[in-house]
Automatic annotation (TrEMBL):
Chain ranges of the DHHA1 domain: 247-316
Parts of the chain that traverse the membrane: none
GO terms for MF: nucleic acid binding
Sequence ranges assigned to domain DDH in this UniProt record: 18-169
One Pfam entry name: DHH
The organism's place on the tree of life at top rank: Bacteria
Name this protein carries in UniProt: Exopolyphosphatase
Length: 338
């Protein structure tokens, strides 16, 4: 964190604030972990804070301390609107464009509160007065730890804060295997374990609580995998009918896209998931090495994110989206096969 950002946040928090903390739509481990950790910390410091999520989050994160305090906008819009209208400060975590928060977007665009962005994705927009944006960070949870450290609050990290931050770092680094995992990340994680984060529990609760239906859905996804060796690429499709057949629950497809990268020689993996309710195909893209799925998603699928992990969407049908994807790969052959 630079000194200007530290001073700006310190000045904001010198006086009591009515704070709303918001993650992106379909919040993942980093989004839930960072918002809950910041909620714990700010309230422990005497601030008045609430977390409002645009929609629900996966069951495998609902063991995190005080997760039931998160207000789901889809289920309790009235309370959420009242809190946002009354807020003096709004912290937005793990996203950098208001388009990532769904139906909450117009409410935040009209809000008069001071906005603070904490995020590690590329190409941030300029809606926040105070921006802590760093694409080199492993996760937003690592950034929240840095914020607490800069605020001279490390001694106030409780086991509850520690496990929330640990879980977010663990999930956003692929259990510490992604290139964004730095020596600093491991120092932060070591500190969180010392502060009471149960690393074994976090891994077990996130990765070892599968249902039979989720594993059957994974089997379906792997059966659907298409391998394009000439482009060192693999992609998976999942239709709405297949999701329904295997009793899909939010979060069930988490991590499916990564299976393509476990294949020898594959450096680009994508999953296309049909969502009939929203009328779109949701897309997750992963890569290894220098191939930027952030640039690819921005150019073709209205998305973006990180160089090696991004998301996007398509309004074409599932089959048309897959066909379009394969049709543009020849333009990237030199990048994928060098």
């Amino acid at each position: 964190m630079n000194l200007e950002t530290i001073n700006a946040i310190d000045a904001l928090l010198e006086t009591p604030q009515r704070i709303v903390i918001i993650p992106h739509k379909n919040p993942d481990g980093d989004a839930v972990g960072s918002t809950l950790a910041l909620w714990h910390y700010l309230n422990d410091m005497g601030q008045q804070a609430k977390v409002i999520a645009p929609n629900d989050f996966p069951k495998f994160l609902k063991w995190l301390p005080n997760n039931e305090q998160i207000i789901n906008f889809e289920k309790d819009a009235a309370s959420a609107k009242e809190l946002i209208n009354d807020a003096t400060a709004i912290f937005t975590l793990d996203f950098n464009h208001l388009g990532r928060i769904g139906e909450l977007q117009p409410l935040l665009e009209e809000a008069s509160a001071t906005f603070v962005m904490i995020d590690h994705h590329q190409e941030p927009s300029d809606y926040a007065k105070i921006m802590y944006s760093d694409v080199t960070m492993s996760s937003t949870c690592e950034m929240v730890y840095n914020l607490i450290e800069a605020h001279k609050g490390i001694s106030y990290i409780t086991p509850e804060i520690a496990i929330c931050l640990y879980t977010g770092i663990m999930t956003d680094t692929g259990s510490f295997k992604y290139s964004s995992t730095s020596s600093r990340t491991h120092i932060v994680v070591a500190s969180l374990i010392e502060k009471g984060a149960n690393n074994t529990l976090a891994h077990s609760m996130v990765y070892d609580t599968n249902t039979p239906s989720r594993l059957h859905l994974l089997g379906c996804a792997l059966k659907n995998m298409v391998i394009l060796e000439e482009y060192r690429t693999a992609y998976i499709t999942l239709s709405q009918e297949e999701l329904d057949r295997y009793d899909f629950k939010k979060g069930d497809t988490e991590g499916f896209v990564n299976y393509g990268l476990t294949l020898e020689g594959i450096i680009f993996a994508v999953i296309f998931i049909e969502n009939k309710d929203e009328g779109i195909i949701k897309i997750s893209l992963r890569s290894e090495g220098d191939f930027s799925v952030n640039e690819f998603a921005r150019a073709h699928f209205n998305g973006g994110g990180h160089n090696n992990a991004s998301g996007g969407r398509s309004e074409k049908s599932l089959s048309e989206t897959a066909q379009y994807f394969t049709s543009i790969l020849p333009s990237y052959k030199d990048q994928l096969t060098k």
